[in-house]
Amino acid sequence: MEKKSARGALIGAAFLMATSAIGPGFLTQTAVFTGSLGASFGFVILVSLLMSAVAQLNIWRVLCSSGLRGQDAANRLVKGLGFLLAGLIALGGLAFNIGNVGGGSLGLNALVGLPDTIGCLITGLLAIVIFLFKRAKTLVDQVVKYLGAGMIFVILVLAILTKPPVGAAVKNTFLPSAPMGELFPAILTLLGGTVGGYITFAGAHRLIDAGLTGKENRKPVARSAVTGIGIAAVFRVLLFLAILGVVTRFAGIDLSDPAKNSAIEGVAEYNGISNPAAYAFKIGAGGLAYRFAGLVILAASITSVIGAAYTSVSFLKTFHPAIERHENHWIIGFIAVSTLIMTILGGAAKLLVLASAVNGLILPVTLGVCLVASQNKRIMGADYRHPTWLLASGILVVVAAAYLGVTTLGSLAG
Q1: In the Cβ-directed half-sphere of 123, how many Cα atoms lie within 13 Å?
Q2: pLDDT tens profile 93-128
Q3: CA distance 324 to 208
Q4: Which residue, 76, 196, 266, 377, shows the most beta carbons closer than 10 Å to its own?
Q5: What is the DSSP string of 44-79?
Q6: CATH number of 3-413
Q7: β strands within 162-314, DSSP E
């Protein structure tokens, strides 16, 4: 593979993973949980970031070293396990994608005032257009890179405008004042929204499709994974600080139910549409910031729709060779179905949080499969050695994610 093409695929994979992890679900979750937890949400970001980094580094290394997609590695471990894994990921990806399309409608509403139904259709069509081109994968690399960079710049500006209490954020990141019982559901939901379901595999599957596999590509693959983790981390911290500035200035503000805020002096009028992230910026920095927030949500939605559809279909390839031959058509169909369901259902904000929580429950399964595969010579090759620190930390993440899922399932359902 040419160096320029390889470099483009590595950067594209990093941004595909990062922009999938910082989709409209993450924006909505951050607004909702920062509103309820305040500066303590910094602790949630720190824990979920460490856990997601361990998951990403393990899964990318195992899949790209073996050259096998997640479902194919699972099938080699236990016959039929890959089909189960592919089904879980595809269903979780569909749930995410329905929410992502809805997120696009929230962004367009804040940006230009479009109603939900039209916003959903436009978001779906914008994503579909990309896969109508023959060189769709190369185009995906470019789209997610430029939209991702633009999102970070806009959020940085908004974070400066809202003047967050940085000292309190740093302190609570390491010594949270909120009780653990309230932090656990937030950790699971954020974890699911950043590495749950398809997201963990998005970049790795892109690199496998680009042929960047085997021992000789181990180092560039690791650098790509770290780059993606870093991009997502910067965005998460900036978004958290921006919204923290708002909830600190307006004590008692409820971003998830703005109708309750009419008695708070200085709070912008609620337009009747639940859009916690954009609403926070409208309160904190005015109407122009509200428009910019809509632009960020729209960009996050489009990149996440692309990532969810592309990765989910990459899992479905296992079921029949015709799916691989007509991959772009299947991706277009996946986006079209997601758009149709969201157009009928509505209620994007709640669905975005719920989809993340559900996908958080899938993480222990997907990461666990890759850890077991890392010790299998038939899959990895006779001379492969998985780093001990990655294996040990991966096991800890599997156990912790499973524990979080079991202990917080009831509260998340509520």
Answers
A1: 41
A2: 887 788 888 888 888 988 888 888 899 899 999 889
A3: 14
A4: 196
A5: HHHHHHHHHHHHHHHHHHHHHHHT--HHHHHHHHST
A6: 1.20.1740.10
A7: none
